[in-house]
Amino acid sequence: MTPVTIVGAGLGGLTLARVLHVHGLPAIVYEAEASAGARTQGGMLDIHERDGQLALKAAGLFDPFRALIHAGGEASRVLDPQGAVLMDQPDDGTGGRPEVLRGELRRLLLDSLPAGTVQWGRKLARVAALGDGQHELTFTDGASVTTGLLVGADGAWSKVRPLLSDATPAYAGATFIDTYLFDADARYPATAQAVGGGGMFAMTPGRGIFAHREPGGTLHAYIGLRRPAEWIAAIDFGDAAAAKARIAAEFDGWAPALTTLITHSDTPPVPRLLHTLPIGHRWSRVPGVTLLGDAAHLAPPAGEGANLAMLDGAELAQAIAAHPGDIEAALAVYESVMFPRGAVAAAGAHRILDLCLGDSAPFGLLDFFAGAFARRDASGEG
Ligand SMILES: Cc1cc2nc3c(=O)[nH]c(=O)nc-3n(C[C@H](O)[C@H](O)[C@H](O)COP(=O)(O)OP(=O)(O)OC[C@H]3O[C@@H](n4cnc5c(N)ncnc54)[C@H](O)[C@@H]3O)c2cc1C
């Protein structure tokens, strides 16, 4: 069989390549970045039993994944702006949503692929339909290839998506600004204590500080602001000190233990304007091409996107393996499950963003957590 052509070596594209490999099917992944280490793959990811963990089992990588888990990272707490604890749920060790570093998970997938599977420094510039399910990909270096099975795993700004749909991502009205404190237990003990052992949420309508403890005493925060894109664009992020001061001004009167995550960030603050595809984004079958992950169902960050991308990749590989010689049947089966799942997840992600930064903050999120923990306790699951 000719290799499945995958654009994008994110978690979704790599899981697809790996599960194809497990089934003895070849794949080639074209990735824009120059190398595996070209960009820091920051952040902790909760890997859920219902999606990310299923994908890792299909990939035959569940045991090595378990070795990457950051113990204690499942704790969550909600604080008020003065740092008083409104909710505190310790990590009970049952492991339903274990946390790992995104970069370590990506490395695990990369190392599990045959040498040469990922072609680094190959940025797709354009793709043309040749008919009969064939597509020609042209890269920014001028090289081109033709394929009979193309998968766009190229994220939010997918260059493959226009073959299937006119949809483009729209600004969701909120921005997350990345900050880090290193060695925080020693250098910023009050902040380290406020964040606790896992995730910490502190918010009022329109603004929030969401932090995660990472291994080695690192605190990683997303400073959430519900503001127009122009408001964010007016901040000079090239001047880190001025940007920190401008953002911190939005949290005037908040406890210094919390605002330290902004004012003392060891890294320059990086704005991530949240964009989304329409909820329920889908397309009619086009021969020889499909999408997975963010390229298919980009939604606000709510702890699901990477998990879904991995499950999409695993299920697409399984569908291809189950329909030898019938690519269209494989893609139809995959999309019939992926579309409704992506729609439900996107609707849930918009709801969570609203609970975090909307007018009900923080009480809507407290109710949400209370409901989730009650359901979990009732079902006896971890
Ligand atoms: C602030 C923030 C926090 C998040 N937190 C979480 C979380 O805690 N848990 C969770 O599950 N999800 C989280 N997400 C969502 C998650 O990051 C994405 O849903 C997930 O990365 C999607 O995976 P993917 O493989 O579809 O795409 P991506 O991870 O975006 O990978 C796409 C790949 O394609 C490559 N590419 C792009 N264009 C081209 C091109 N033209 N040619 C070749 N290669 C190309 C890119 O370089 C990249 O390597 C978060 C997102 C944000 C913005």
Automatic annotation (TrEMBL):
Q: Name one Pfam family in it.
A: FAD_binding_3
Q: Which GO terms describe its biological process?
A: response to antibiotic
Keyword NAD among record annotations: no
Q: Kindly list the positions annotated as binding FAD.
A: D46, R102, D294
- Catalytic reactions of this protein: a tetracycline + NADPH + O2 + H(+) = an 11a-hydroxytetracycline + NADP(+) + H2O
Q: Does the keyword NAD apply?
A: no
Its GO CC terms are: cytoplasm
Its required cofactor(s), as named, are: FAD
Q: Which GO terms describe its molecular function?
A: FAD binding; monooxygenase activity
Please name the InterPro entries in this protein's record: FAD-bd (IPR002938), FAD/NAD-bd_sf (IPR036188), TetX_monooxygenase (IPR043683)
Q: What is its EC number?
A: 1.14.13.-
Primary localization: cytoplasm
* Keyword annotations of the record: Cytoplasm, FAD, Flavoprotein, Monooxygenase, NADP, Nucleotide-binding, Oxidoreductase
Which compartments is it annotated to reside in?
Cytoplasm
Q: What does this protein do?
A: An FAD-requiring monooxygenase active on some tetracycline antibiotic derivatives, which leads to their inactivation. Hydroxylates carbon 11a of tetracycline and some analogs.
User: What is the name listed in the Swiss-Prot or TrEMBL entry for this protein?
Assistant: Flavin-dependent monooxygenase
Species assigned in the record: Nitrospirillum amazonense
Taxonomy of origin reads: Bacteria, Pseudomonadati, Pseudomonadota, Alphaproteobacteria, Rhodospirillales
